[in-house]
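From the shared-data thread, chain only:
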Amino acid sequence: MKKDEVAMIGFEIVAYSGDARSKLLTLLKETKLGNFTEVQPTIDIVDDLLKKAHESQTKMLATEAGGEEVELGFIFVHGQDHLMTTLLLRDVVMDMIELYQRTNV
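Structure, as tokens:
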């Protein structure tokens, strides 16, 4: 797989995980204000975005696992960074939302 193909996969991962990250941070602000109505619908959207990012990542991993040479570049590494930090952010935001819900009862 050529570097430009890998870069496109990196851009996909950045786009999907970046959208998920933005939605998580907006959701956190809303729940901090006591608005819990959008928690599940937003988490469903976030999970779908993260699934798409993971599917993009898996395409490249499967190619390399199949024996094809893969030329990595910084864009793909940046995408990986975005995905991993957004996955962690999702976990942290979910815990914080749970805490906000407990204190708002």
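The CA atoms of residues 34 and 104 lie 7 Å apart.
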